[in-house]
Amino acid sequence: MGLRKKKNIITLTICMVISFILYQLYFFLSITSAASGDRVVPVHVADIENIVHVRPESDKYINEHGVIKGVLYFTMPQYRPDAKEEFKCLKSDQYIPFEQVNDDYCDCEDSSDEPSTNACVNGTFYCDSQSSNKRVAPNSVPSSKVNDGICDCCDGSDEWLRENGVELLSQANKRHYRYYGSKCLNQC
Questions:
Q1: Distance CA 74, CA 64 (A)
Q2: Measuring CA to CA, which residue among 138, 115, 159 is closest to residue 170?
Q3: Is the pTM of this model over 0.85?
Q4: pLDDT in tens, 88-133
Q5: Are 143 and 117 in contact (CB under 8 A)?
Q6: Between 20 and 30 A from 150 (CA), which of 72, 83, 139, 185?
Q7: Contact 115, 70 (CB under 8 A)
Q8: Backbone angles phi, psi at 6, to 5 degrees
């Protein structure tokens, strides 16, 4: 290797090291700057172990994937309040206050305001075992079967409101042997 190539490699390496150090300095200054109002505060492991996360009452209708329970995955964007904090029923032009969604009272004529409850007679509950990237026929049950004590969805997501000590009727296998258990098993 010639002397000129060695000088070029050394110069390039020094430039990359200096760029990396400047980037790290910029990053450190940006996360510790007082201009943004945020400060980096060290957290001790003992503090993390003492934190108990309690979900608020309004989040009981949200599943572990961050989706409202019982909602068809592709209609999830329609379950957000509009600028007036109202919900537009899915199959009609009816508007209701967003607070009335999942309030155990059927307000919409098409039953779309109660996806997580069994309040609407003609409602449909879509099980959590939906595919977010494929448009396939989802596993669904009539909303009257939600939280009735019988595991109807293959993943058990229709029995989301459980109290301690209450047993649920489940299906053990493909032969449909039924048994009582403390929670629904995922059979999907």
A1: 17
A2: 159
A3: no
A4: 998 888 999 988 988 889 999 998 898 888 888 888 888 887 755 5
A5: yes
A6: 72
A7: yes
A8: -65, -40
Half-sphere exposure of 123 (CA within 13 A, CB side): 28
* Residue 140 to residue 25: CA distance in whole angstroms: 53
Report how far residue 105's alpha carbon sits from residue 115's, in angstroms, rounded to the nearest whole number: 11
Quote the CA–CA distance of 62 and 20 in Å, as a whole number: 42
The 3 state secondary structure assigned to the chain is CCHHHHHHHHHHHHHHHHHHHHHHHHHHHHHHCCCCCCCCCCCCHHHHHCCCCCCCHHHHHECCCCCECECCHHHHHHCCCCCCCEEECCCCCCEEEHHHCCCCCCCCCCCCCCCCCCCCCCCEEECCCCCCCCCCCCCEEEHHHCCCCECCCCCCCCCCCCCCCCCEEEECCCCCCEEEECCCCCCC
Q: Which residues contact 44 (CB under 8 A, 6 or more apart)?
A: none
101, 89 in Cβ contact below 8 A? no
- Reading the block at residue 151, the tokens are 């595991």
